[in-house]
Amino acid sequence: MPKPATDAATRKWIVDYYDGSWFDYRVVWLNKGTLAKHFGYWEPNTRNHEESLLNMNKQVAARANPKPGERVLDAGCGVGGSSIWLARTFGLNTVGISLSEKELVRARRYAKERGLEAQCSFEVQDFVNTTFPDESFDIVWAQESFCHAMDKGAWMKEMFRLLKPGGRLVIEDWFRPSRPYHPADEAMYREWLRGWAIDDLATTGEIVDDATNAGFANAKLDDITPHVIKSVRRLYAMTVALFPGAYIGKLIKLRSDVLHGNIVSARLQWRARNRNLWVSGIFSAQKPAAAPEEPEEVAVAAGTKAEALPKTKRAPAKAKKAVEEPEPAPAEEKAAPAKPAPAEKTAKPAPAEKAAPAEEKPAPTE
What we know:
The protein is α/β, with parallel strands linked by helices. The protein has helices spanning 8-20, 22-29, 49-64, 81-90, 101-113, 152-162, 183-195, 204-214, 225-251, 257-274; strands spanning 71-75, 93-98, 120-124, 137-143, 163-175, 217-223, 279-286, 299-300, 344-345.
C-alpha cells in the first residue's frame, strides 16, 4: 500500500505562504543571529527577542539529547536556522527539508556563509513521504512545522521509519486542548490557521496517541504556554502598530493577499489564546532500541573447563545477566571423577522484552 503524501493543492498553499510572507518574516521577526522563524521561550532573566529564540532552541535540544556526529532530520527547516544552530552548537550533521525551493536557496547560502555547508544539507522533500532509507537519522527535529501536516498520523509513521532504533523525536508547536469548540470559537480558530496555511492542529491527546500508534515510546507533551505568551504578545503589538499601513497597502495592491492574511492571523492568534483555543508545547518521544541478540547455546561437559557464552552486541563481557546461569568452574579446578556426568545445556536466556510504549508561530517567516 503506497504511503500517504501531501496533495498538490496543500503543497501549493504552504509554498505560496512561505514564499509570499518572506518580507514580513525578515522585517518583523528574523535576525541574523538565529535565523529563527519560530516563537521564543521567555524566562525571568531573558533580555530580548533574540535571546528568547535561542532559549527555545535550547529547550527543544534538551529533550533531544544530541551527541556529536549524530545525523538530524530538520523536518520543515525553513531558511535553515535550526539546522545551522544544531551543527554549530553540537557538531551534528543535519539534513533540512522543505517544500519551498526558495527557502532552501536561502538556507544553503546561510550555511555556506557560516562555513557549515559540509555539515548542513537541504532538500525539497514532502515530510509525510520522504525518499530517505529506513533508519537514516538519530534525531527528527520539527519546530512549528508539524502543524502543516494534513495527516498527522501518517507523519508520525514516516518519522518512526526514518529514525534509528533508540532515535529521538522532538516537536515544538501549537496544539488545541480539545475538539470541537463552540461554533463561533471554531470559526475564529480556523480563520487564524488559514492565514498561516494550516488546516488544523492536533489536540494534546491526539499527538500522544498518534505517536504511540506509530510505535514510539515515552511519548510526552510539555505545556510551555506561559513561556511563549510574551513572544505572542510581542507579535500582536507589532501587528496592531503596523496594521493600518498594511491595510492601506492591501487596498492599493502593494501587499499581497498572502501578506495580508499573515498579519490578520498574527492578530487572531492572540485573540484565540485569550479564549484558550491553543497551547504551546514541546513533544518528545523515542523509537525503542533494538532488542539484544540471544546468545547461542553452549554444551558444558562436567569435568572440563567451561566455555564462556558469547557476548551479545550490547552486553559487555562482565555485565550482570538478566537470567541466572550455572557458574562455570574456575580454571584451576581439578578434573571431575573418572566417570563424567552426561553433558547438560546451559539455560537459554529469555528474550529481552520490548520497552513498553511510554511515553511561536510568528507571522511565519520561514
